[in-house]
Amino acid sequence: MPAHAVIGGQWGDEGKGKVVDFLSERAHIVTRFSGGNNAGHTVINQLGEFRFHLVPAGIFWPGVICIIGNGVVVNPEPLLSEISELEKKGVDTSHLLVSDRAHVIMPYHVLLDSLEEKARGAKAIGTTGRGIGPAYVDKAARVGIRAGELLDPEALLPRLKEVVAHKNAIITKIYEQPPISADDIYEQCVAWGNKLRAHIVATEPVIYKALAANQRVLLEGAQGTLLDLDHGTYPYVTSSSPSIGGASTGLGIPPHAITSITGIFKAYCTRVGGGPFPTEMHDTTGELIRERAWEYGATTGRPRRVGWFDGVAGRYSHMVNGYTCLCVTRLDVLDGFDCVKVCRAYKIDGVETTQFPSNVSLLERAEPVYEELPGWSKPTAGCTRKEDLPPEARQYVHRIEEMVGAPVHIISTGPKRHETILVKPIL
Q1: Catalytic one of 4, 41, 53, 109
Q2: What is the pLDDT of residues 334-349, one digit of tens each?
Q3: Contact in structure between 324 and 262 (CB atoms under 8 Å)
Q4: What is the tens place of the pLDDT at every residue in 34-62?
């Protein structure tokens, strides 16, 4: 039962979209299992550049079934927009399925997300404002609306009116904003159901049959392990489980079905929004990397914070996920530096440690302990064989392997599909 997971090893934005697109050629099913349209995956191919927020990156491969799993919270408007964009380019979307158990992001979720973040003031988390957190809150509170309910509008109406009445009490009394209309939202839900009817199905049997037939199922992670609700830098985290644990619950598959786990790591680190970031650079080197790699959020457009590779965080990420192999992306961005740095330990209150702390206040006080490696002048951009990399670049990749504790099987040397070094096949 071969399910293969692709997990963000850092704070997201590691280049999972390109990697999943690359691997999807040999997959039968590609699935998303967590998050919502707060995640952005960029795919560049012969049809152009695409930025997906919900549609799995395997959508371009004919015959590959793409599934948005039950662990994803789905805003139908951006989903329909992505479907429309693909169809305009001649891409078949009939093989895109949405779990009938996936929760729907409603207009009141987006509104409450904005109001709550504004109320936090200086302590704002830095959410994308897309209603992800409030949707997961409703899921846990058992008042959420699921995609399958959009197909049964008669049963949906009384439930929706009850939920909206509760939300309006919060909106008007706590935030002193005008109430929202349950009737307007209901009409929107009916329209969504009609437009998505062909896509909303029970997806667990589809995945189960594929695994039973020994077909390859690719699990597309969103965001990164250090943003995990349980294992990330809480409270500066997302509202779901983008680590490997979320894959099983977010799709309804047994853990033993997952036979390999690929951790995606940038050759350096980035982070969007608030929260501790021990290796963050506040100098011209960080600015140079940001501009060279165009490190701006695919979802929000916000500039990403940039830092050197963090081996402490990388080891912790491996401990949580149990990577069978790694993929290092954006290696070409470091071309031309005289030296490159990696963080091998933290110094917290004068004490050196290699443990990644759970307490955010400790992590905020963590000072990186760096080791310097020689840079390389020969370009790695576009390389497709490991042997063609300069020795210093190979040394750098090897040091990442040592620090994280897993072998590197893929090296990305550019944004395009073919700009990839496949050290060892994964699928």
Answers
A1: 41
A2: 999 999 999 999 999 9
A3: yes
A4: 999 987 778 888 887 888 899 999 999 99
- What angle in degrees, to the nearest 10, is found between the helix axes of 182-196 and 153-173? 140
For 236, residues 6+ apart whose C-beta sits below 8 A from its C-beta are 125, 126, 273, 274, 275, 276, 360
Question: Quick check: 299 and 128 in contact, CB under 8 A?
Answer: yes
CATH topology of domain 3-101+199-261: Adenylosuccinate Synthetase; Chain A, domain 1 (3.40.440)
- Helix, coil or strand: residue 353: strand
Say how far apart CA 58 and CA 20 lie, in whole Å. Answer: 7
Helices (H), 12-152: 16-23, 76-88, 107-120, 132-141
What is the topology classification, in CATH, of domain 265-422? Adenylosuccinate Synthetase; Chain A, domain 3 (3.90.170)
**Catalytically annotated residue among 13, 113, 228, 332:** 13
Where are the domains positioned within the chain?
3-101+199-261, 103-196, 265-422
Residues 6+ apart with CB under 8 A from 77: none
What are the helix (H) ranges across 36-88? 76-88
**Alpha carbons 47 and 54: distance in angstroms, whole number:** 19
13 catalytic per annotation: yes
pTM: 0.93
Q: What is the DSSP letter of 130?
A: S
Catalytic residue check, 41: yes
Residue 171 has pLDDT above 90, yes or no: yes
